[in-house]
Design goal:
Elements lengths: L11 H4 L2 H12 L4 H4 L8 H9 L18 H14 L7 H14 L2 H12 L5 E4 L15 E4 L3 E8 L10 E7 L11 E7 L5 E6 L8 E12 L3 E2 L5 H14 L8 H14 L4 H29 L5 H27 L8 H13 L10 H11 L4
Parallel strand pairs: 1-4
Antiparallel strand pairs: 2-3, 3-7, 4-5, 5-8, 6-7
Amino acid sequence: MFDTLTLAALPAEDDALRPAVRELAESATADMPTDVRARSWMGFDRAFSRRLGAAGFLGLTLPPQYGGGGRGAFARFVVVEELLAVGAPVAAHWIADRQSAPLILNFGNEAQRRAYIPPICRGELVFCIGMSEPGAGSDLASVRTRAEATATGWRVNGQKIWTSNAVHGDYMIALVRTSGTVDDRHAGLSQLIIDLKAPGVSVRPISDLTGDAHFAEVFFDNVDLPHDALIGEAGDGWKQVTAELAFERSGPERIYSSVILLDAWITHLRTAVRDDVATLDLVGEFTARLATLRAMSLACTARLARGESPVVEASLVKDLGTGFEQELPDAIGRDLAAHPDQPVDAELYRALLYVTHIAPSFSLRGGTREILRGIIARGLGLR
């Protein structure tokens, strides 16, 4: 059920991380044009991720015995906010740090924790998440990829789609069916760690409108895995994946996808010395909405810091944040078009084109709008 989100402030000791993170992020983006920084989510740079790991900015919420920082969710909030604010390339560590390592910590066995979490904290492993499938989309209970028990472990057959960074990935955590049929819905689902270099795994990149290939299809053809590929207990996959999605949906990454474009547009307005009321109102509206969304995200972070799983609240942040991110490029494009006498910087124009093209994907990643609103409706007792 839904609980009221209570405003939360960043603890001073976590906010104190900003200068060091900002220096590292700005050094990585100093020579990047605006349109490249606008690709922050998709910016893949293993060397930068290793630098973050060496500086202690990955695995902040994980225990020190596994290489983590032993801090709370607020510390990670600060780091993510600083990285996205300048458009630093985060894709190489993004999923592993945010989802995979906490999932393995909470549900994996000790051998899995020792094997995977320390290199994740060092920025050395790239993980991807195998959830969506053709014909299933965000209806994760409809997954058909199957893992059959064998004498030595598991044999996987099936397909995943819209898998972020699978092309670069080392491992996938896949939601698969280990018993029953699709008609059983949530029952019989499990999560497996799959080595993407294993025989029988093939990855096919999907090019988007921008020309990038962030997404991919992944095929499993009689992929044999050891017993310890299973995370937790067989059949507990649905419980595990819903807990995992709370990490994915509630953070500042759900409100800052278009922030580089927003900053570039406001810089343009200062140069253009424009004072028309409609434009000023638009800047004020976006600023107020961003501040409100940030406050909601912080409130969710406070609940995560208390060990709670704000599934409904995180879905609200993700749905409202995605709407904000998708409206920005359209509104900015129309504002620029309404003032054809004022020249537009080439970098701003390219950033606008990129974000306009990629924005439809914002409501795919992390759960479609329809699925999120179903979760919200159930949490509010409306269905």
